[in-house]
Structure formats: structure tokens, C-alpha cells
Specification:
Layout (H helix, E strand, L loop, with lengths): L2 H12 L1 H10 L10 H6 L4 H11 L21
Helix pairs in contact: 1-2
Length: 77
């Protein structure tokens, strides 16, 4: 997953405004309690940050593609 895809998904799933707030403030327990922004800046792969974010928000796998069934988002590893 590219960084641009990461942000497109974040906006599609959480909304463009709320996704940015969450990305700056939500601590991801599976990524050393970093926020999504901090994790990306620390070099964590966008795919891994996305999985951690969705897990933290308890988002079902079926909802992780932003309701765009043409977008392929494989399940977490």
C-alpha cells in the first residue's frame, strides 16, 4: 500500500476531517502506542499502520475498503 492509498482509505472509512484527527491523536497499541502519523513518520509501512488503526477502531474486515468494493484491501496478516 502506498502512502497516498493509505490516506484515501482513511478519508473514505473515517471521513476526511475525522480521519486527520484520529491520525494525530489515536494511540495504536500494536504499534508501540504511536499515533498513525507518528508510526508513518517512524517508518512503519502504511499497510501495517492501516491494519493497526482498523484493529484499534474494531473495524470489521469488510468495512476496511471504504465501501469501495473495487478497491482490494487484503485482510490483515
Amino acid at each position: 500500500m502506498r502512502l497516498s492509498e493509505f490516506w484515501e482509505l482513511a478519508d473514505a472509512v473515517f471521513g476526511p476531517d475525522y480521519s486527520r484527527v484520529l491520525a494525530r491523536e489515536l494511540a495504536l497499541t500494536s504499534v508501540q502506542s504511536l499515533t498513525p502519523v507518528e508510526a508513518l513518520e517512524a517508518g512503519v509501512r502504511p499497510r501495517d499502520v492501516w491494519d493497526a488503526w482498523c484493529d484499534e477502531m474494531q473495524l470489521p474486515v469488510a468495512a476496511r475498503d471504504g465501501a469501495d468494493r473495487s478497491r482490494l484491501v487484503p485482510p490483515p496478516r
